[in-house]
Amino acid sequence: MSPAERLTPEQIAAYRQMSPGEKLAMAEQMYWDAWKSKAADVRREHPEWSEDEIEAEVRRIYFDAQSRASAEEKRIFMKVVARTQNSKSSPT
Question: Mind giving me the DSSP string for 29-90?
Answer without folding.
Answer: HHHHHHHHHHHHHHHHH-TTS-HHHHHHHHHHHHHHHHHTS-HHHHHHHHHHHHHHHHHHHS
